[in-house]
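Internal tracking record. Fields below are filled automatically when a chain is submitted to the structure queue. Please do not edit lines marked as system-generated. If the sequence contains nonstandard residues, flag them in the REMARKS field before resubmitting.
Queue: standard
Priority: normal
Entity type: single polypeptide chain
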Amino acid sequence: MLVPEGDLLIRLADTRPAIVGQVITSAPGRPSALDRILTIGWNPRAAKIITLLDCLVEPGSPIDIAAPLRPKEDLQEQLENLAVGHKP
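SYSTEM-GENERATED OUTPUT FOLLOWS
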């Protein structure tokens, strides 16, 4: 997941992207496994994104934040499933 430092270059698209139904498929079930997430960069919206991701992963799944400075918020207190790490 790549998180830009600012939102100056983010803009809404003029039209919705086309959905190609032929390529949508389902995969057979598989045993649960930990998800590993690497977040590159940080901005004020990243904490909300990580909180939303926490609902989708198995307990104990690691998320590493690669950013020059450690995020000011203590995310770990807000999360149930993700284990937060920081990589400068």
